[in-house]
Amino acid sequence: MNIISLFPDKKGLIPQAAQLLVDAFREHWPDAWPTFEEALEEVQEMLEAERICRAAVDEQQNLLGIIGGIPGYDGHVWELHPLAIQPSLQGRGIGRALVEDFEEQVRSKGGLTITLGTDDEDDMTSLSSVDLYENLWEKIRDVRNLKNHPFEFYQKMGYVITGIVPDANGRGKPDILMAKRVRSVVK
Ligand SMILES: CC(C)(COP(=O)(O)OP(=O)(O)OC[C@H]1O[C@@H](n2cnc3c(N)ncnc32)[C@H](O)[C@@H]1OP(=O)(O)O)[C@@H](O)C(=O)NCCC(=O)NCCS
Q1: Contact, 113 vs 103, CB < 8 A?
Q2: Is residue 41 a contact partner of residue 22, using CB atoms and an 8 Å limit?
Q3: C-alpha distances in Å from residue 110, one per residue of 52, 122, 178
Q4: What is the rounded distance in angstroms from the CA atom of residue 98 to the CA atom of residue 17?
Q5: 115-137: pLDDT as tens digits
Q6: If you take atom 6 of ligand 1, which residue's CA is the nearest one?
Q7: Does 109 sit in the ligand 1 pocket, CB within 6 Å?
Q8: Ligand 1: does its nearest atom lie under 6 Å from the Cβ of 90?
Q9: For residue range 29-72, what is the model confidence (pLDDT) as tens digits?
Q10: Residues with Cβ < 8 Å from 63, sequence gap 6 or more?
């Protein structure tokens, strides 16, 4: 497996990237990219010059996974968005490799923090279908993963929950906000 930068001239990989977004999010986030055309628009945005877009590929240039990053706060903070691994290849360390590579990319650009939002639209965690305005921080502290929600993948990668957007995807369907420090502030 190689991890490469995805540029607009990588014509063969771009449609694969769009199809991957559709396939990887279909089961639990059906509204994310319901069609190839909508996913292709997202991929075109991922390729914008100021962003980071990295792809894991095999020797035949088949796309295994993709990760994107959007700069904010004068480049101090990068939002990780999106991340997707081919459904048949999940659980084999590709996501970890792409996130580690992404962190290196952010570091090399002088970034301090990576943030992300990971939606729970399908009762995948104990933070869904509850009143988050009541004892919010206890609920976050005691969060449980009910259906393999990716927040736990990010926790394994060192990300912490920094907040939540209640009802982000409709009533009881929050967006879980997470962050990781990727560079110590020395000066
Ligand atoms: C979530 C996703 C990116 C993880 O990538 P992956 O290649 O399957 O994960 P890895 O094999 O690198 O897993 C790294 C570790 O995280 C754990 N992990 C991976 N996905 C997990 C999940 N959904 N829930 C709990 N733990 C998970 C693995 O068991 C592994 O743990 P270990 O180090 O103790 O062995 C991938 O499954 C995916 O694309 N899912 C669909 C789309 C998605 O959820 N994107 C992120 C939305 S914000």
Answers
A1: no
A2: no
A3: 13, 36, 20
A4: 14
A5: 999 999 999 999 999 999 999 99
A6: 95
A7: no
A8: yes
A9: 999 999 999 999 999 999 999 999 999 999 999 999 999 999 99
A10: 13, 16, 17, 20, 55, 56, 57, 86
pLDDT average, residue stretch 153-166: 98
pLDDT at 187: 55
Query: Residue 97 and residue 33: Cα distance in Å, rounded?
Result: 24
Mean pLDDT calculated for residue range 7-11: 88
Distance (angstroms) between ligand 1 centre and the Cα of 119 equals 15
For range 144-166, the mean pLDDT: 98
pLDDT at 167 over 80: yes
Nearest atom within ligand 1 for CA of residue 25: 42
- Cα(20) to centroid of ligand 1, in Å? 15
From 21, 102, 119, 153, give the residue whose CB has the most ligand 1 atoms within 8 Å, as the site to mutate: 153
CA–CA distance, 26 with 46 (Å, rounded to integer): 19
146 C-alpha to ligand 1 centroid (Å): 14
Q: How far apart are CA 95 and CA 98, in angstroms?
A: 5
Q: Which residue's CA is the nearest one to ligand 1's atom 43?
A: 84
